[in-house]
Specification:
six-stranded parallel sheet, 15 helices, 17 strands, 35% helix, globular, binds 6-O-phosphono-beta-D-glucopyranose, G6P_DH_C, NADP, G6P_DH
Length: 482
Amino acid sequence: LPVEPFDLVIFGGTGDLAVRKLLPALYHRFVDGQIPASSRIIGIAREGLDDDGYRASLRKALQEGGGNAAKIEAFLGQVGYRSLDARKDDGWDAFAALIGEQPEHIRVFYLSTSPELFVDICNRLGSYGLNKGRARVVLEKPIGRDLASANQINDAVGHVFEESQTFRIDHYLGKETVQNLLALRFGNVLFEPLWNAEHIDHVQITVAETLGVGQRSAYYDRAGALRDMVQNHILQLLCMVAMEPPSSLQPDAVRDEKLKVLRSLKPIDESNAAQLTVRGQYRAGAAEGQSVPGYLDELASGKSNTETFVALKAEIANWRWAGVPFYLRTGKRLPERVSEIAVVFKAVPHSIFDPAAGVLAQNRLVLRLQPDEDIKLWLTIKHPGPGGLRLRHVPLDMSFAEAFGVQQPDAYERLLLDVVRGNPTLFMRRDEVEAAWQWADPILAAWADSGETPRPYTSGTWGPSAAVALIERDGRTWNEES
Ligand code: BG6
């Protein structure tokens, strides 16, 4: 079904995210007939382009993404461009007049720029009256670089837009498998009785990428893996695994439960960061069969203490999860692109099997987000055949592509339309962002104070060996079953 007519303005319209993710997502929704014909999509950046110049750059990206030529042209007919500087008034009058042409439209302002510009952009949107009516603002992560700067941004945005108009996007929440966690946990009777410290041994969340930092080093070098991936995406995944059942799927019912998880995270600070965290930085090596340079070689300065890998052991101090480790890891230039959540159950209390029958492995529920979405439940069964009782560990396997036969939509497709529809369930509320920084800040401070440099790892390996030691010390291993 089409959504209501809207005008969507993307600040940072020539940036990597807009060109690689946002516009292709909108194109796919257009092809499926969900974008009304009167809707407009307007890219904004400082570059002195015109509509045609902008469309040409998008045409190329959409063609490379396998779009149909005629449909691309029809879609681009709804796309325009304006050159604006958030820090100067030039052009803003004309821009406000353009938006004012369709006052009944829902207005969405997507800030896909550096967070340093969020305040200036919102102030101008406010002073030109563009925050009025059915206006919404989308803030791309990271929101700030610590709690103090996030508060400054949230306060300033809050002067112009109400909280109900503010959508803090975390695209991991739009991924099918993540939403499936809700269905799996709360739509089945099997899991919830076991979903606690009594039956779950530990949880692992891995977000591994083969890509390096490449063109994004100006942003990335000021962020690092903890700010770029853990403070937002990985903590949001952790919340979906760990939260209590919300009373409904109302936005605040879900977000209240996530917030409680974030507030229950045990602090990691200078007293324990050395035991509970590992930082790494990639060196030259290989990625997808090609040799690739190291992180420092990609920086103009050739110097940096920024981590491109982090592994850590988190804990949630509440009744459900006390004592259950959540091992989290993410990194660039790892051997494969894979994101998954592994919930590892406890061993059976007593084995009745002969040791010769084989190892009695623990049950695991593995939810894979990438590259393909699937859910596997690893069980112990008897190896078929007459030759004695031999145990085997096999998956009950639900691959989405096989089961439903379609390519799953990109997370941004769902989330962009949720903004237009005004549904904030899968967006972060201000207090969630703050609680996540409250946990991340002392880790960043402990690293800065320690004066230690991140441990080097060769591109194409699973990060520094200390990350393996972090989990093996506890008699556990990173999930390798796929
Ligand atoms: C972004 C990070 O939020 O997520 C990137 O800034 C990262 O560094 C990306 O590469 C990963 O997203 P996905 O959907 O490709 O796993």
